[in-house]
Amino acid sequence: MAANKLLGVTVLPEYIQSEGIEGLLGNLTRIGANAVATSPYLMEEADPQTGQREPPADADAGSVRLLDRPLFGKREVYVKTAPSFEPDMSLYSGLRYQPSQATDLTRSQGHLLNDFIAEARKRGIKVYFQVQAAIPPGYRVQFGGPVEEDRARLPNGSIPEKRLAKNGSLASPQILGYEHALIRDLIQNYPNLDGLRIDWPEYPPYFLDSVFLDFSYNAEKAAERLGFPFERMRRDVGGLYSKLHGGLTDSDLEPWARDSDGGRFHLLRLMSDYPGVSAWLRFKAALVDEMIGGFRRVMDENGGRDMELLPNAFPPPWTIASGMDFARVAQHSSAISCKLYTMHWPMILRFYGDQILEANPSLSSSLLAQALVRWLDIADDGGLGTVEAYSYPPPDVPHPVGPLAQARKIRQAQREAGDTPVYVLAHGYGPLDDFRRRLEVARDAGDHGYWVNRYAYLSDDKLEVIRQVGV
After folding, report:
1. pLDDT score for 403
2. Is the four-CA dihedral 99, 105, 107, 109 of positive or negative sign?
3. Which of 126, 150, 323, 378 is most open to solvent, judged by the fewest CB atoms within 10 Å of its CB?
4. What DSSP character marks residue 71?
5. Gap between the Cα atoms of 256 and 374, Å rounded
6. Closest C-alpha to 200, from 352, 322, 333
């Protein structure tokens, strides 16, 4: 293994329960892993009426997914969770959001995570907890979410109908207060952790409407406090939203799809028409900066000064819309994990494209696909021919993304982050040969190593690929 490079695997706790500590750590040791990320919960089977599907269906687009490693003997299972620890309720006093209560599962198996941390560290494997930045109670993406008052909103004040991420407004004092209490609780219960990996500390831009957040009451109050022109932002972002929803023609798309400058002139011209958009993008970056800076401060003040803070991030250019400014966030972070979840990229393009085409039925699907491929920078050629050609890839289909595009995103993120390491966060989902190629990109594009997400998609053959590719 290359000196000082990270090779980490995300192993959610259900696999500690399902495969056992020794068997699981034996697999990680064989592939050369020196880091593992898990989460502070436990899992048990449920029925479809009371549980959530594992693996997640990703707004139904990912319902084609199956687990590569059987969980409780199954490749698709409905589950429910419980915290792995007894929350200190005094930490959450007066907050809208309260932690999930300990259950019999907590009391019977809660020791597993402390046992796992101790055994992993004996083997020289660092252990991190992944928690959600803005989805109370914060243990897992699919479980929880904010009340309506703390949801992010569109310029017209409405809440998007479709969502994949259950994130609330990053400006909500109640959500931030809960997250601070959770961090204190975790440090208190797991003092031997090497750090926290924070997931979705941004506005995840899976759907087109998700790009146009946040104009909630909480955001308005934060904008006033931070000195941003909220009404101008609302007006201009709303104007751009309206342009995309009924005001687009093929002539609008041609510069993006066909001009040799990639549409840069057209972009500058567009931004001059909507100056409040630039302020809004800076505002979202300020909210993310405050959130992550607050997490670091709480860690430092509550016994976690030696623990690392690793926010997860979308890759460029999505980060412009999500608020994840690598340069700003780097000031608070031990490292930043940049996601190459390449099965999501065609899904996102399709989500955006379908919404734009529905609102602008005269648009050319081919021209829109070309423009979106260039905007999102997901291909090394022109990409697929139409919007309809894109979808969430089934388990046996290679992801329709370019290796050079993946590398460009990581190098851009590292340039922005400066001296703060950027880890590639690759995904295990997909066919074996395609997984190998994507893992080689992760190894070669980053200077500091990579994570593989998640153990659930790592068959024994894929574990062997990780060992062979190395860092």
Report:
1. 97
2. negative
3. 126
4. B
5. 7
6. 322
**Which one-letter DSSP state was computed for residue 248?**
-
Look at residue 4 and give its three-state secondary structure. Answer: coil
Extents of the domains making up the chain: 6-215+288-349+381-469
Q: What is the separation, in whole angstroms, between the first and last Cα of the chain?
A: 6
**Residues shown for the chain:** 471
Between strands 308-313 and 195-199, the pairing is parallel
Chain CA centroid to CA 417, Å: 18
- Cα–Cα distance between 39 and 12 in angstroms, integer? 6
Handedness of CA 252, 409, 29, 139 (dihedral sign): negative
79 vs 81: CA distance, rounded Å: 7
Tokens coding 349: 């393009």
Residue 442 is which amino acid? Answer: A
Do the beta carbons of residue 418 and residue 332 sit within 8 Å?
Answer: no
Q: Closest Cα partner for 353 from 323, 390, 383?
A: 390
The pLDDT tens digits of the residues spanning 218-236 come to 999 999 999 999 999 999 9
Q: Provide the CB-side half-sphere exposure for 151 (13 A, CA).
A: 17
Q: Which residue has the tokens 């969430």?
A: 392
**CB proximity list for 138: less than 8 A, separation 6 or greater:** 131, 132, 144, 178, 179, 182
Question: What is the CATH T-level fold of the domain 6-215+288-349+381-469, as seen in this structure?
Answer: TIM Barrel (3.20.20)
pLDDT at 181: 98
Q: Is the dihedral of CA 359, 361, 367, 369 positive or negative?
A: positive
Q: Measure the CA–CA gap between 319 and 55, rounded to whole angstroms.
A: 26
The β-bridge relationship of strands 52-54 and 77-83 is antiparallel
In this structure, are residues 154 and 132 in contact, taking their beta carbons and an 8 Å threshold? no
Please tell me the pTM assigned to this model.
0.94
Tokens found for residue 426: 């690759």
Phi, psi of 11 (to 5 degrees): -125, 100
Q: How far apart are CA 364 and CA 358, in angstroms?
A: 12
Looking up tokens 């593992």, which residue turns up? 36
The string of DSSP codes covering 329-390 is HGGG-S-EEEEE-TTHHHHHHHHHHHHHHHH-TTS-HHHHHHHHHHHHT--SSS--SSGGG-
Q: Which residue has the tokens 């070309």?
A: 370
**Residue 443 confidence (pLDDT):** 97
- Would you state the pLDDT for residue 1? 47
Below-70 pLDDT ranges, the chain? 1-3, 57-64, 261
